Amino acid sequence: MGVLATAPLGLIGAVLALLLFNQPFGFTALLGLIGLGGILMRNTMILTQQVQDNFKAGMAAREAVIEAAVQRARPVVLTALAAVLAFVPLTFDLFWGPLAYVLIGGVAVGTLITLLFVPALYALWFRLKNEY
């Protein structure tokens, strides 16, 4: 599926964080964007793997996608929250501060968008229909 399609979703939060905290977009911020893409793609792989596991368990396609989003929302959000909190002390550093702000904003916003975007993309990609 389009795991790569979710990498840019963190740009929204990253740009907002840099603008909100008046941080420069330099080398370290660019490094943060590269890492951010990896974090969001990992979240996507976690969600899509759960969909595949649900398919193997015999769930209908629509139900498998919805249940995967519900089942993996808590672990994905908790991991994102841990990452956000881990980068807070780095925001006080002059050199690494922009990287921390990119990761904090990008992970926070990107994770929430990913939890909504991936199931919708999965449903569109595989042309899932309502099965009531």
What do these coordinates show?
- By secondary structure, the protein is mostly helical.
- It has a single domain, classed as Up-down Bundle (Multidrug efflux transporter AcrB transmembrane fold).
- Helices cover 73% and strands 0% of the residues.
- The protein has helices spanning 11-20, 27-56, 61-87, 97-125.
- α3 (61-87) packs antiparallel against α4 (97-125).
- The longest helix is centred in the first third of the chain and has 30 residues, at 27-56.
- The mean pLDDT is 91.
What's the SSE blueprint?
Layout lengths: L10 H10 L6 H30 L4 H27 L9 H29 L7
Helix pairs in contact: 1-4, 2-3, 2-4, 3-4
Gist of the model:
With 132 residues, the protein is mainly α.
Domains (count): 1
Strand content range = under 5%
Helix content: over 70%
Total number of helices: 4
The CATH architecture name reads Up-down Bundle
Instruction: Tell me the CATH topology.
Output: Multidrug efflux transporter AcrB transmembrane fold
Short descriptors:
single chain; 132 residues; mainly alpha; Multidrug efflux transporter AcrB transmembrane fold; 4 helices; elongated
